[in-house]
Amino acid sequence: MNIGSAIKNLRKQKGFKQTEFADKCGLSQSYLSSIEKGRKEPTLSILKQIANTLSIPTPVLVFFAMDLEDVAAPKRDAYKLLEPSLKAMINDVFISQ
Prior knowledge:
mainly alpha, 6 helices
């Protein structure tokens, strides 16, 4: 799972600069940067703040953070097949402006 990368990508898609976004989330820019770079793991309450600021449900944020390694080996082929369609659909519903 790469939650930091997902946060960074979604933040950029929503048009937020890192400093502005950190302020809206009630975080310091350096802490947000550490999360985005994978050096810090955010708590669930911080994930909720971030998702709320992105105007998306927290599970959507977590879904975009999933990596193939997060899926059980016997289900990876199905995940690889479904992932592009699911991400596109979720992006259309929750991310696109």
